[in-house]
């Protein structure tokens, strides 16, 4: 069963996930809007990250999983990423900070 994270843990995990950077775009997964939800798997005592990618055919899931493990080290013992494809990601999910980062990298957004 997946339950909600405590608000303070949610904030801590979200902040840590800002260290996970999409290798193609150079912006973190939180500000890109790739994190759809965070939950806790009570049965396996693990964080569940509901995450998508900018495209379903992206070959970089291993890189993102490694970065996630590094970012969450010392915050949670275990996690798993639940790759989500619906609803599909779109640029409207990018935060204002993410838009600023993309503009700084030369993207017209």
TrEMBL record:
Gene3D superfamilies in UniProt: Fe-S cluster assembly (FSCA)
Source taxon at top rank: Bacteria
Pfam families referenced in this protein's UniProt entry, alphabetically: FeS_assembly_P
Domain spans labelled MIP18 family-like: 11-75
UniProt xrefs under InterPro entries: Fe-S_Maturation_MIP18, FSCA_dom_sf, MIP18-like
Listed PANTHER family: FE-S PROTEIN MATURATION AUXILIARY FACTOR YITW
Protein name stated in the entry: Metal-sulfur cluster assembly factor
Native organism: Agromyces intestinalis
């Amino acid at each position: 069963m997946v339950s909600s994270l405590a608000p303070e843990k949610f904030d801590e995990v979200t902040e840590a996930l800002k260290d996970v950077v999409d290798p193609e775009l150079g912006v973190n997964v939180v500000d890109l809007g790739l994190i759809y939800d965070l939950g806790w798997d009570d049965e396996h005592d693990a964080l569940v990250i509901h995450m998508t990618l900018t495209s379903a055919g992206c070959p970089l899931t291993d890189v993102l999983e490694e970065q996630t493990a590094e970012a969450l080290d010392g915050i949670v013992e275990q996690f798993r990423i639940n790759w989500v494809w619906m609803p599909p990601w779109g640029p409207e999910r990018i935060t204002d900070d993410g838009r600023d980062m993309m503009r700084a990298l030369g993207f017209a957004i």
